[in-house]
Design a protein that fits this description.
With 269 residues, the chain is of the alpha/beta class. 35% of the residues lie in helices and 21% in strands. The chain has a six-stranded mixed beta sheet.
């Protein structure tokens, strides 16, 4: 049986993040990818120019079309910009009994543009955390979800992850990519266990879509039957190599303050 993963997320017209990054990642990791589009963005390597939310009824129609036909092994959830969208996605997960759910709480784009409306944050915590196998916030997202300061070291990262566990998720992968130092350290925190995911930190401005890529890579591993910790380790390796090869891509005309894409297909070209 072919391993299948589904991304429920927003579209990035520039191709670096969102469902485009997710589908590239699924393909790069040997998994068939399908998608449910929750929002359309007009964006490129210079920033986000506009966002159009897909009506909730049509999101539900996409969910029904995909999950009624495909044998889905894992679901990655990304950009859900408003409360009604979160509610319809939660209902869909229940309707099709999805448990291998990777929730990437996308709140702000790399450019600084807000992608999650402030009034939807509580709905995200209440409805989707309990339905997630793992939640994958970066340091600023974890701080925003907890209404606290950004973690400055691994002890603080672990403490924040443990607080997020109390919101209902089975596990939290708190990402250290926004930190400093020669190593990029993520912590996979589960009840009674902590796994360090360590990789070299590469100096590049081409980091657009790294969060999407990591969470969809975890979903790809889960779709292939890997346990969560193994899926997270494989995903960390994949995204690290995609970042390391990112400067081989010459995409867009963004300036030094903008972010280009990572190289999802580094293994082939």
């Amino acid at each position: 049986m072919t391993a299948i993963a589904v991304t429920i997320a927003g579209s990035d017209s520039g191709g670096g993040a969102g469902i485009q990054a997710d589908l590239k990642t699924f393909g790069g990791m040997g998994v068939y990818g399908a998608s449910v589009v929750t929002a359309l963005t007009a964006q490129n390597t210079r920033g986000v120019m506009g966002v159009y939310d897909v009506p909730p009824a049509f999101i539900a129609a996409q969910i029904d079309a995909v999950f009624s036909d495909l044998k889905v092994g894992a679901v990655k959830i990304g950009m859900l910009s408003k409360t009604a969208t979160i509610e319809v996605v939660a209902e869909g997960l229940d309707r099709y009994k999805q448990t291998n759910v990777v929730l990437d709480p996308v709140m702000v784009a790399s450019s600084g543009d807000r992608l999650l409306k402030p009034d939807a944050v509580e709905t995200l915590r209440k409805l989707l955390f309990p339905r997630a196998l793992v939640v994958t916030p970066n340091l600023p997202e974890a701080a925003a979800l907890l209404d606290t300061g950004i973690a400055g070291n691994e002890d603080e990262m672990r403490q924040q992850a443990e607080r997020l566990l109390k919101l209902g998720a089975k596990a939290v992968l708190i990402k250290g990519g926004h930190g400093t130092g020669n190593e990029s350290v993520d912590l996979l925190v589960e009840p009674g266990a902590v796994t360090r995911l360590v990789a070299p930190r590469f100096v590049t401005r081409n980091t657009h879509g790294t969060g999407c890529t990591l969470s969809s890579a975890i979903a790809a591993g889960l779709a292939k039957g890997l346990p969560l910790a193994e899926a997270a380790l494989a995903a960390k390796s994949y995204v690290t190599q995609a970042i390391a090869a990112a400067d081989r891509l010459k995409v867009g005309s963004g300036d030094a303050s903008s972010h280009g894409p990572v190289h999802h297909f580094y293994r082939w070209w």
